[in-house]
Amino acid sequence: MATMRDATLRAVGPTNLRLLALLVALSLVFGLSVGDRLFAGLGLRSMAYQLPELGLLSLAMMVALLSGGLDLSIIATADLSALAVAAVLKAAPGDAAGAALAAIEVGAVLAGIGVAAVVGTVNGILVGYLRVSPILATLGTMTLVKGLAVGLTHGSVISGFPAGVVFLGNGSVLGVPMPLILFAAVALPLGLVLTRTPFGVVTALMGDRKSVV
Amino acid sequence: MRDALRRLGASQELWLGLVILAMCAVLSVLRPNFLSLQNGLDLLSSYAFNGMLVSGLLVVLIAGGIDISFAAVASVAQFVALTIANSYGAGWVEVTAIAGAIGLCLGLVNGLLVSTLGIASIIVTIATQSVIYGVLLTVTKGQDIFTLPDWFAAGLSVSVRTDADGTEYSVNLQIVALVASFVVAWLLLNRTTFGRQVFALGGNPEAARRVGFDVFRLNLMVYAYMGLVAGLAAVVQAQYTQSVSPTALVGRELDVVAAAVLGGASLDGGVGTVSGAVLGLALIAVMQNGLALLGVSSYWSPFFTGLVVVVAVASMAARARRRWRDSPGLA
Description:
- The structure holds 2 protein chains of 2 kinds.
- Chain A is mainly α.
- Helix content of chain A is 80%, strand content 2%.
- Chain A has a two-stranded antiparallel sheet.
- In chain A, helix 3 runs parallel beside helix 8, helix 5 (98-129) runs antiparallel to helix 6 and helix 8 (178-196) crosses helix 9.
- The longest helix of chain A has 32 residues, at 98-129.
- Chain B is mainly α.
- Chain B has helices at 2-10, 12-30, 37-46, 48-62, 70-88, 92-117, 121-140, 150-154, 173-191, 193-203, 205-211, 215-241, 253-262, 274-293, 301-326; strands at residues 157-162, 168-172.
- In chain B, strands 1-2 form a two-stranded antiparallel sheet.
- In chain B, helix 2 (12-30) packs parallel to helix 14 (274-293).
- The longest helix of chain B is centred in the C-terminal third of the chain and has 27 residues, at 215-241.
- Chain B is globular and about 60 Å long.
- The interface between A and B is medium-sized, with 24 and 27 residues.
């Protein structure tokens, strides 16, 4: 019995335990003071729609931190990526429907991911090959990418997307908010990659001490 | 001779100087008013705030740390000092003293946290920036102060030249403060024991500790100095913009860090020069001014700043690697 508890404690880790304790404490404090609103269906739903975005960005930052680096450019990259999605959608003919519309939507999302991957690759080249310190490299690309986004849009908002794209952020499947599903769809494979593949182990080792790798 | 040339070729200042000269040459051909005395004075005044902060940040960088909270510190110092001046009546001395003291105290808090928590200074100062900025926004409710005391709005300036047609050129508070901050930083780093200790601390903290330097006190002084400079720069900035806004300064951090780093200051500590920082600032100032004079929309300004930073850090890193290959162990 005791060994099983020890094994569980080890698997969870001291940091996660402390965070869990903090979460329980916060839940108690806010539960007792504003619990009727916080834990009502509406409160939980709004958290489930808002937090996965922060969660996805945290996952991105976590990988950079794990490797011993830091990525200041992720928010700017996310913004530029969203702009790429919008650009493709706005460039596509407005009367597309059915399969054509679906293809455009998938293409737009892929374009967004592609743009983000390009920025990430530039960061990787700067940090990995040129040995620029990660803070500096991503500070530069952050300014560059944000500048590109502001320069292209002049700071204006682009809105009015087809239902398929809106669904990614606002829809739900069987009552589960779509953002939460997307978060799980990224977090679970990422966890597996980081703990069960050579790539993941090397990334963590690199963060621990570069010369080991 | 060849060695001397090679050393010169490896110096960050030389490359920066050449790039700036080339930019100035192109700009003065395309836009004759670029080299006018008035544009020069305007440029100096408008970059006084950033420049003063660069001079402070340089000391922090050389000490092996970084401070991201200075814009928030400056915003608080500005707001408190001018609110007091508006409601109780205060002069230059009081406003400067209040702003400086607030900056100094917040800097001490940064130094205390950095030396006791054992967390990277970038994380600590991002946290203090959020706290300071959050409190400021709550207290001010995001409201600007537009009415400043008359003596403050009038400012301080000395006329240096009057043209035949009666146009006056003057050196104002901003320019004097900008020059003074770099002179003080230079004296501090190159002519005092404190400066030597700062270089030692940034070069190798453990060695500095073993040699017997009071690393804790040194860190406190470094961050306090940064805070003091931020507080004073805040007064200069408020006088320049003729208003105090709790939200206007935050976001300047990157321009300031970029200028210091372009000038060759290393984020690993122990490396950096005042002349490099001045040139880094000049590069950004000339580029942004040049783009404006050429009629490029100001929306594109951050893009070019980012581009310059990325190209500069990449080429600096490439040169450092070449140096390493030529003489391993000495880079």
